[in-house]
Design a protein that fits this description.
alpha+beta
C-alpha cells in the first residue's frame, strides 16, 4: 500500500470536512430529522437515534 503525504491545504480541507460532518449530525439530532445517505447503491434513511460516527 502506498502512503501519500498531504499538503497543508489538503489537511485543512479534510479537517473542515470532519467539522461539517459533526455539525450535520448535531443539526439532524437537534431537528429530529432523518439523515439520507447512499449505501451499496441504495438510498437509506437513518433515524437520529441511530447516528454513529
Amino acid at each position: 500500500m502506498k502512503t501519500y503525504k498531504r499538503s497543508a491545504t489538503q489537511t485543512k480541507i479534510l479537517d473542515a470536512m470532519d467539522l461539517v460532518y459533526d455539525k450535520l449530525i448535531e443539526f439532524k439530532k437537534k431537528s429530529n430529522t432523518e439523515l439520507v445517505i447512499m449505501k451499496d447503491d441504495k438510498i437509506v434513511r437513518i433515524k437520529p437515534k441511530s447516528f454513529n460516527k
